[in-house]
Specification:
By secondary structure, the protein is of the alpha/beta class. The chain is built from six helices and nine strands.
Amino acid sequence: MIGLENACLSFGEKVILDHFSIDIPDSGVTALRGPSGCGKTTVLRALAGLQRLESGRVFGVSGDQTAFLFQENRLLPWRRVAQHITDVLPRDRWNEARQWLELVELENEEKAYPAALSGGMCRRLALARCLALGGRLYLLDEPFAGIDPERGRRIIGRIRSLNTPVVLVTHEESILKVADHIISFDGPPLTIVR
């Protein structure tokens, strides 16, 4: 299991986590859902070591074992599609770039720059870069925003075949339907809806 134990965190006067604990399965695809602003992204960031807790602890994983996909694509406009993948791979693995692009159905765009891609294609490129980075856990914040549902289901199937646990935040019903585990939240402060 991975998760948070007795976690506390506030942003100014706004309490996000108040002695919050959660156990997340460390296999399959776990989807976190809940209203905007309830604290889902904060949970991902804490698991990744990107958000320091005021008290409590993260267990089952350390930040350097995770690959994190932000809500923003954070693409480099001067780098071609394939270069976004090779940028996160050691040189002796650059030949893997095409397989990561195939996973997200971008294999015919290797030489394109981000400006030539649609919003959904940019999102898929950011996802491919995160997956290529690898780790013991993928933490994905809204990975399928702007991606059509059928394509999203195909991609999540390929991600599942990587046999690396995934924790993702999504509002996409089509992705929730194919997740192995769903955890519903409300808040803030963040609570688990049973």
